[in-house]
């Protein structure tokens, strides 16, 4: 019997305009109807994000699959927030389908900050420590009734084999552009690394776009759409995709990560980066250069 989850077809995303989002607010939350609604630059892929006035934001799923996370976020984020050392989004209200928009949606408080880059982190070691402390606190929350991996979070917390076809497909596309042998070796090692089966909470998508800096320091963690309980190795991918070499060592030591979990975490970073590199072949923009830089770091740091 095949126990590897099926990701299913690519989600059919929809567009949402600021005018449509404003109509949703006016229909369902008339006390906010006079507040301006403006699109957020780089406002997300899984969700369309809009500012509502100065102090709130609207988060509207872009496909049915992403809308599965709305109920989870409203149930769990208010419970997680008090246990965590950094601010996270806490929903203020839940909207319903309307104004030709077909899914449930959310109103959150706005959290100021800017996403980090390799250059904008003021102190890479302090950043790694702060991030490790956040992950440790999240893992310490009682996971006994938390949401198990599923389509609501694209099976984060389940087996890495869920993404094997995508990783190997990207590796084949990159043949001739990179040395595929060490990449394949690291991928195989990640698949063989066993999880002990103890459920813990994880964020599921610790990436640059979901971390916020203020004055060069980590100040908040956002977008918990992929959160859940299960194998926490997915939250280690950030060690290669953003942290410095020294920061990566500090991050691992502060969390006390064993060899098997570290290998799986590197596997999560590897499949994401292989796909990013394959998708950006022939390009020379900042994202393409960052993807190649991260892949080089993963292949150099072989544990």
From TrEMBL:
Q: Name one Pfam family in it.
A: APH
Tell me which SUPFAM superfamilies the record gives.
Protein kinase-like (PK-like)
Looking up CDD domains in the UniProt record yields: APH_ChoK_like_1
For this chain, one GO molecular function annotation is: transferase activity
Instruction: Tell me which domain of life the UniProt entry assigns to the organism this sequence originates from.
Output: Bacteria
In short, the EC number is 2.7.-.-
Record-annotated Aminoglycoside phosphotransferase domain positions: 42-268
Kindly state which keywords UniProt assigns to this record, in alphabetical order: Transferase
By its UniProt entry, which PANTHER family does this protein fall under? AMINOGLYCOSIDE PHOSPHOTRANSFERASE-RELATED-RELATED, BIFUNCTIONAL AAC_APH
What is the protein name stated in its UniProt record?
A: Aminoglycoside phosphotransferase family protein
Species this chain originates from: Streptomyces sp. Y1
């Amino acid at each position: 019997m095949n126990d590897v989850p099926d990701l299913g077809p690519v989600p059919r995303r929809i567009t949402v305009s600021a005018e449509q989002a404003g109509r949703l607010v006016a229909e369902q939350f008339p006390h906010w109807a006079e507040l301006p609604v403006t699109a957020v630059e780089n406002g997300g892929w899984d969700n369309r994000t809009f500012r509502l006035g100065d102090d709130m934001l609207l988060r509207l799923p872009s496909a049915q699959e992403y809308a599965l996370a709305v109920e989870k976020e409203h149930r769990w984020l208010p419970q997680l927030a008090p246990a965590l050392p950094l601010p996270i989004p806490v929903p203020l209200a839940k909207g319903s389908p309307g104004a030709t928009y077909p899914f449930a949606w959310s109103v959150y408080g706005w959290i100021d900050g800017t996403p980090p880059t390799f250059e904008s982190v003021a102190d890479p070691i302090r950043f790694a420590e702060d991030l490790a402390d956040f992950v440790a606190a999240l893992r310490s929350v009682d996971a006994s009734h938390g949401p198990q991996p599923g389509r609501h979070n694209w099976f984060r917390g389940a087996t890495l084999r869920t993404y094997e076809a995508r990783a190997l497909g990207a590796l084949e596309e990159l043949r001739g552009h990179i040395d595929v042998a060490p990449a394949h070796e690291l991928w195989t090692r990640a698949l063989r690394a066993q999880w002990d089966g103890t459920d813990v909470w994880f964020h599921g998508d610790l990436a640059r776009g979901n971390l916020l800096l203020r004055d060069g320091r980590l100040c908040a963690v956002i977008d918990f759409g992929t959160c859940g309980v299960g194998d926490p190795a997915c939250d280690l991918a950030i060690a290669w995709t953003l942290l410095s070499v020294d920061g990566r060592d500090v991050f691992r030591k502060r969390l006390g990560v064993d060899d098997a979990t570290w290998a799986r975490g590197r596997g999560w970073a590897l499949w994401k980066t292989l796909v990013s590199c394959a998708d950006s072949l022939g390009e020379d923009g900042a994202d393409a250069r960052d993807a190649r830089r991260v892949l080089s770091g993963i292949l150099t740091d072989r544990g």
